[in-house]
Amino acid sequence: MKLEKILITGAKGQLGSVLTQKLQEKWGVNNVISSDLRLNTEFNGNYKKLDVTDFDALKDIVTKLTNLRDKLEANTNFFRSKMASVGFNINKGTPPIVPIMLGDPKIAQEFVKRLLEEGIYVIGFFFPVVPKGKARIRVQLSAKHSKKQIENAINAFVKVGKELKIIG
């Protein structure tokens, strides 16, 4: 969805404030203006008018705002389920920052090094950043990752995991 500028009218109350803030974060403060006046002749230029009481238009905007969040959630769920299914120890949960628990800091350091050789950049965490015996690799997923990129990362994890005898 390409929007030049948006004028939000009827934006009183918490809903209007939050909507205005979110749209300003996405499209810039100068591209999103909020007004309590529904018939405002001051902003007759290139603004797409969005009245918060126009629920179809509001639903369309809010739905488009959640697309990236939805993709991030799908990417995270895909990565987590595949990694668990091949035998990696990952903390339960849904955050897009996924710790791959390895325990031994030397193994974690070697794993990070080998993944980089496979073209996968991850961060290893060891004592004193995490408790002794809780070394891990942190994978941070993004909505911008394609399924192919995630599959490549999983394949690299599996290859290195087998070489280091972390998984069978």
Summarize the structure in words.
The protein folds into two domains: 5-53; 69-163, Aspartate Aminotransferase, domain 1. Strand 1 (5-9), helix 1 (13-27) and strand 2 form a beta-alpha-beta unit. The chain is an alpha/beta fold and 168 residues long. It is elongated. It contains four helices and six strands; from the N terminus they run E-H-E-E-H-E-H-E-E-H. The strands form two sheets. A three-stranded parallel sheet has the order 2-1-3, with helices on one face. The protein has a three-stranded antiparallel sheet with strand order 4-6-5, covered by helices on one side. Helix 2 (55-85) runs parallel beside helix 4.
CATH class of the largest domain: Alpha Beta
Secondary-structure element order, N to C: EHEEHEHEEH
Q: Strands across the major sheet, in which order?
A: 2-1-3
Under the CATH scheme, which architecture of the largest domain would be assigned?
A: Alpha-Beta Complex
What percent of the residues sit in helical stretches (DSSP H or I)? 40-55%
Radius of gyration from the alpha-carbon trace, in angstroms: 23 Å
Mean pLDDT: 81
Examine the coordinates and then state which fold CATH places here, giving the name of the CATH topology of the largest domain.
Aspartate Aminotransferase, domain 1
Total number of beta strands = 6
Total helical elements: 4
Question: Proportion of β residues?
Answer: 15-25%
Name the CATH superfamily assignment of the largest domain: Aspartate Aminotransferase, domain 1
Q: Report on the biggest sheet.
A: 3 strands, parallel
Measured between the Cα atoms of the first and last residue, the distance is: 46 Å
Structural class: alpha/beta
